Amino acid sequence: MLLCVSEVEARKIMDEIHGGSCGSHIGARSLACKVMRAGFYWPSLHHDASRH
Fold first, then answer.
1. Which CA distances in Å does 8 have to 3, 5?
2. d(CA 52, CA 45)
3. Which of 30, 35, 27 is nearest to 3 (CA)?
4. Which residue from 47, 7, 43, 14 is spatially nearest to 31, judged by alpha carbons?
5. Is the pTM higher than 0.70?
6. Origin, by domain of life (predicted)?
7. Residues contacting residue 4 through CB under 8 Å, at least 6 positions apart
8. Domain of 7, in residue numbers
9. Span 1-52, pLDDT tens digits
10. Which of 11, 13, 30, 43 could form a disulfide with 26 if both were Cys (CB 3.0 to 4.6 A apart)?
11. Degrees, nearest 5: CA angle 30-8-22
């Protein structure tokens, strides 16, 4: 089961996974997959990852 998060939480999660202590700078598809593997989801996840 994935936890649906707010827009503010989504930005924090993507920032941490994309460039924080959890990983390195990665592409949009990998970023979205890592977010979901971490247990999070929001309706515009794939779109947001491509714009991040």
1. 14, 8
2. 10
3. 35
4. 14
5. yes
6. Eukaryota
7. 40, 41, 42
8. 3-51
9. 888 999 899 999 988 887 765 556 678 999 999 999 999 999 999 999 999 8
10. 30
11. 40
DSSP code string of 1-52: --EE--HHHHHHHHHHHHHSTT-----HHHHHHHHHHTTEE-TTHHHHHHH-
Distance between CA 49 and CA 3 in Å, rounded?
17
Reading the block at residue 21, the tokens are 């202590």
**CB contact set of 45 (below 8 Å; sequence gap of 6+):** 10, 32, 35, 36
Region of residue 39 (left: phi > 0; alpha: psi -120 to 50; beta: else):
left
CA distance linking residue 5 with residue 43, whole number of Å: 9
Which token pair is 27?
């592409």
